[in-house]
Amino acid sequence: MILVVAEVQRDGTLNRATWETVAAAQQLAGGEPIVAAVLSSARAGAVGAELASGGVSEVLVASHEQLAQYTPDGFCAALLQVVGETTPTFVLLPHTYQARDFVPMAAARFGAPLVTDVTGIEGTGTDAVFLRQMFQGKLVASVRHRGSGPRFVTVQLGAFRADAVTRGDGAAAVRTMAVDISPEAVRQRPEEPFREAKQAVDLGQAERIVAVGRGIKAQEHIALAERLAAAMAAEVAASRPICDSGWLPMDRQIGSSGQTVAPKLYIALGISGAIQHLVGMKGARTIVAVNKDADAPIFEVADYGIVGDLFEIVPALAAELEKG
Amino acid sequence: MKIAVCVKQVPTREWQPRIDESGAWIREADASYELNEPDAYALEEALRLRESHGGEVVVCAAGPARVQQVIREALARGADRALHVEDAGLAAADAAVTSAALASAMAGEAFDLVLTGLQSDDQGHAQTGVMLAERLGMPHSTIIMEVQVDGGRLRVKRELEGGWFQWIELPLPALLTIQSGINQLRYATLKGIMAAKRKEIRTLPLPAGLESGQEIVRLSVPTRSKQTHMIEGTPAEAAAELARCLREEARAL
Q1: Are residues A245 and A100 in the same domain?
Q2: Tens of pLDDT along chain A (324 residues)?
Q3: Host domain of residue A157
Q4: ω before B173 within 30° of 0 (cis)?
Q5: d(Cα A319, Cα B239) in Å, to the nearest integer?
């Protein structure tokens, strides 16, 4: 049996990554049953019903008032009890910030192996080999779990297709399981989530985006990207290191910690293509990459690529477009 | 406050990894190495906390002998001393082994606060910090963008996805994984580099019997998921051809 742990968003709905994880589980299962678990206080009603229609054999709602707000201690305790009761061969979760926060704790407590940020699966069942990126996406590792006990896996966002999920013919049973979490065992006291300031730009609405990365080298070179953006009616955006350096405001950041965009055209200048950036832009219809490093992972998702010096190519391209 | 910072030495970003004869690891001798970038931010945060709250900053690393390069660098930036679990086998270790190795060296030190980077630029498991917290019996919080210390408690700003944040309160001792960009990094001064030569690096053996949770069967160069049209020529030629493609083929302009 394979256990998929769903992730419920702040608005009480399932995130898309949960369905991507169900798709990964179906590929891995090779006919084995899949159980979906929700860790929740009480609001799992609609979520439970939604999961039950998703081609799983059972939905398990682990319920406790300590799970009303996410904490790593609370969710780890609940997950350990669900895994202890269901004894799955694999436990799959999406590789979200939340899973990163509590799944390694659960794996360490179990003494169980954990393979994170998986992009592909070869084979089925306990013989399966998992693919994951290493060295900033420059290599792919084929990895096998070792040791005994449940094998934990987190699945990279966007690596499996949510619409590939095979729906069941009937709704699966939804079972509530009482879990025991003592309040003293939860050491973190979370406050309400908030946004820093109202986002000045909604890059999600932009038709075209010119994004800069480390290759831009200095703040004064941002003007190059701004000129190109002006020539094609595009917004300027950046990868994380540029915003960390304060060269562009944080609300122009594309990637897992910033905005996710799917414009008609995305031009990546001097961006190597770390996965944290790619998850935010690989849905763009046309992707152009300009980078001096021919081996940069950004070229793997690009439709058009130029290997060369962006300080020569960008002014030439801007001039070309300004001709009209 | 007694603060530990865990650092990892990783191949530089510029190095194109080459696969060794086994097919399951890189040719380490060909690589040049640097301090894992998120760990540099964790170190900087530790130094700032020491400046405002007093105490000491201890660098902790688990890796082969070459790791002394980044330990010396951390000492030059201002850390007080270092613990180094040294073993050639740690070069390719997974998070289960690395966290157990670090815990063996750190358990007796009674640190108030342990900081790590949020993940490494080489294997990128994003597990070591959280597993280390569990092995040290400490509460943790991850992907932290601000740290406030008030008496025996911490209040930390945790980054969520999509531009959201959340404040978390937790008791000391605790472990935090630090997000890149939390602060502005300082670099070593000549005085710092000289002073680092006299600072203590205690080398400890790897405890026997640690088992990794996973095995790398094979490394490979990624295959392209898309057919990329690579445009060549002089900058002017390439720019003209790209503009033509975007207008006529992709219809994106």
Answers
A1: no
A2: 999 999 998 888 898 899 999 999 999 998 899 999 999 887 667 888 889 988 899 999 999 999 999 999 999 999 999 999 999 999 999 999 999 999 999 999 999 999 999 999 999 998 899 999 999 889 999 999 997 789 999 999 889 989 889 987 778 999 999 999 999 999 999 999 998 766 667 888 899 999 999 999 999 999 999 999 999 999 999 999 999 888 999 889 999 888 889 899 999 999 999 888 998 998 899 999 999 999 899 999 999 999 999 999 999 999 999 987
A3: 2-185
A4: yes
A5: 9
In this complex, do B127 and A286 lie within 8 Å of one another by their Cβ atoms?
Answer: no
pTM: 0.91
Nearest-Cα distance to chain A for B151, in Å, is 16
Neighbours of A174 (CB within 10 A): 18
Report ipTM (2 d.p.): 0.93
The answer for A 66-85 residues in CB contact with B (under 8 A) is 72-73
Q: List, as ranges, residues 218-277 from A with C-beta within 8 Å of B.
A: 232, 240-241, 243-245, 250-251, 256-260, 264-265, 272
Question: Are both B242 and B164 inside the same structural domain?
Answer: no
Q: Which two tokens stand for residue A201?
A: 């730009």
Does B214 fall in a domain? no
Q: Residue B112: which domain range? A: 2-205
Q: Let me know whether A143 and A235 are in one domain.
A: no
Contacts of A244 in chain B (CB under 8 A): 180-181
Q: What angle do CA A143, A147, A153 make, to 5 degrees?
A: 45
In a shared domain, residues A169 and A219: no
> Strands B140-150 and B153-159, how do they pair?
antiparallel
Whether residue B217 lies inside any domain: the answer is no
E-state strands within chain A? 2-5, 34-40, 58-63, 90-94, 114-122, 129-134, 139-145, 151-155, 173-178, 189-190, 194-195, 208-212, 235-238, 265-269, 286-291, 304-307
Residue pointed to by tokens 């910072």: B5
In-domain check, residue B213: no
